[in-house]
Q: What sequence folds into this?
């Protein structure tokens, strides 16, 4: 397993290099850069003349290397990452990109992990219930929920919930993780005193994100689990287990379900980026300070290094997810071996 892990990590290096090249090229393909954003702001908000704005924009390009060829900019960015762990400087936030990512990425990953946990738990449970009660009202209701989860766009569902909360229920302080009175409070007030009020306030603000992202993942997990379990229940070894006198519950949970889980475990390799994108869509609608709004905002104003770094991080989660999925498959099924072992 250790040998397999080392090999996969080494294989990930050229993948990340190619990914970074493509990402950097696509980001720089549209015309314009952050200097154009400065020029536009000087004219519209600062009442500067066009000549003064053009001069300021050109001066900013020279000072920050934006006039250099794209290849030079890319090499400078990658060299900083490899040699110093420096992902560049954010033009808009005026601080290192690592600080911008460090502020937003942990929140994004935590939200995605929570969504993934609920989507997997509920999806697998619903799939088992639907398969063991095929064509019953339970199967019909759960299949309808799955259909809605896979067909309704997440951003549309986010807009509907936002409209209801803001205009029908008059919920205040949307677009933040905490209410103003809890923002500066620590979670631990003492050695054995946890700030449960702040945690509940956090849940009140992020539940739409968790709910919407969970629905999409739940739908997929349920449909795959239902289909796989129906096939597995008709397998010969399951009939043999029944013939031996094992209870139906033991046959299903001890023999059928573990084998039906294989495709879902393999799917975990791509579920993290999927949950991240689901969280990103909803976070953009709710204007939460996560990766999503940062990517969209940085792309709109030409903050190249922020966009490139965030997209590179999302690509890395896909690689890490696939490695974890392969390891989980080996643990789940002892028949699976790594390499020639």
A:
């Amino acid at each position: 397993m250790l040998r397999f892990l080392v090999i996969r990590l080494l294989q990930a290096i050229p993948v990340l290099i190619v990914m970074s090249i493509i990402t950097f090229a696509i980001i720089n393909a549209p015309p314009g850069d952050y200097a154009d954003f400065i020029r536009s702001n000087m004219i519209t908000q600062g009442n500067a003349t066009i000549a003064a704005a053009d001069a300021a924009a050109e001066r900013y390009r020279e000072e920050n290397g934006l006039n250099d060829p794209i290849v030079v900019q890319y090499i400078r960015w990658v060299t900083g990452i490899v040699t110093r762990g420096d992902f560049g400087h954010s033009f808009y936030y005026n601080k290192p990109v690592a600080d911008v990512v460090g502020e937003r990425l942990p929140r994004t990953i935590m939200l995605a992990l929570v969504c993934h946990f609920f989507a997997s738990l509920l999806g697998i449970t619903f799939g088992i219930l639907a398969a063991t009660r095929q064509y019953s009202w339970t199967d019909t209701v759960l299949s309808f929920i799955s259909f809605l989860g896979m067909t309704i766009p997440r951003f549309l569902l986010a807009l509907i919930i936002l409209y209801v909360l803001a205009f029908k229920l008059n919920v205040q302080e949307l677009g933040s993780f905490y209410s103003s009175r809890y923002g500066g409070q620590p979670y631990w007030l003492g050695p054995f005193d946890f700030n449960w009020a702040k945690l509940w306030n956090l849940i009140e603000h992020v539940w739409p994100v968790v709910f919407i992202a969970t629905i999409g993942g739940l739908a997929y997990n349920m449909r795959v689990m239902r289909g796989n379990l129906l096939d597995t229940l008709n397998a010969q070894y399951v009939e043999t287990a029944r013939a031996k006198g094992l209870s139906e519950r033991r046959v299903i949970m001890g023999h059928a379900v573990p084998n039906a889980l294989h495709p879902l475990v393999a799917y975990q390799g791509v579920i993290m980026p999927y949950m991240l994108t689901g969280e990103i869509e909803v976070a953009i609608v709710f204007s939460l300070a996560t990766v999503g709004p940062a990517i969209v905002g940085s792309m709109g104003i030409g903050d190249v290094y922020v966009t490139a770094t965030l997209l590179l991080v999302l690509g890395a989660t896909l690689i890490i997810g696939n490695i974890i999925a392969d390891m989980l498959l080996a643990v789940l099924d002892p028949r699976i071996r790594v390499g020639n072992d």
Observations:
- The mean pLDDT is 85.
- The radius of gyration is 25 Å.
